[in-house]
Amino acid sequence: MFCANCGTTLTSDNHYCPQCGKKLEIHTTRRSIVSSILKVGAVLLVLGGLYLGSAFWMSEDIVETPQNQLMAIRNNHLTEAYYGYTSHEFQKALTLEGFRDFVHTYPPLLRSEKVTFNEIGIKGNLAKLTGFITTHENQKIQIEYQLVKEDGKWKVLNFKIAKPVQQKTEVSRS
């Protein structure tokens, strides 16, 4: 190792050149290594955040499909609920008229206030969402959606609705 200023031979324990007194860049190099490590760590942190953010965005997109379909049903826009949110396979299995009949025979769909999903599973281009519809009357009904990625969008493959969950009410005894 040599001094960059005067060319004197140096040892690894020198902080200054014994000949010209120039501060040696050895410690600056150590700082730059530490700085590089911190920069790499920051990049990895940002990439990890982007990965988690994309996973959140992807699941957010999944949840929007059933939410928007239920909103269309609640607003009695059944053609939109059918063609806008169901997959080709769903449409092959059930006609628009059959979908309308189903919705009208299950009134809680028309009275849904919100939907909450407590389980979301994604495997390739398929997703399964399980949760509850809450009606205007505060009635909770379990629902399960199967979605498929079709033409870059999540579409309803099928959904199942359980019987309404009875709310427990306290009875006062006199």
Question: How does the SSE layout of this entry go?
Answer:
Blueprint: H1 26-74, H2 78-83, H3 88-93, H4 96-105, E1 112-123, E2 126-135, E3 140-150, E4 153-165
Antiparallel strand pairs: 1-2, 2-3, 3-4
Main features:
174 residues, alpha+beta, Nuclear Transport Factor 2, Chain: A, four-stranded antiparallel β-sheet, 4 strands, 26% strand
Distance between the termini: 96 Å
**Alpha carbon gyration radius:** 31 Å
Strand content: 25-35%
List the strand order in the largest sheet: 1-2-3-4
Give the beta-strand count: 4
Which blocks of ≥5 consecutive residues have pLDDT under 50? Answer: 49-59
Corresponding CATH superfamily of the domain at 64-165: NTF2-like, domain 1
Question: What is the third-level CATH name, the topology of the domain at 64-165?
Answer: Nuclear Transport Factor 2, Chain: A
For the largest beta-sheet, the strand count, sense and barrel status come to: 4 strands, antiparallel
Report on the structure:
There is one protein chain. The chain is an alpha+beta fold and 174 residues long. The protein has a domain of 102 residues: NTF2-like, domain 1 (Nuclear Transport Factor 2, Chain: A, Roll). It has a 4-stranded antiparallel β-sheet. The chain is rod-shaped, with a radius of gyration of 31 Å. The relative contact order is 0.10. About 6% of the residues have low confidence.
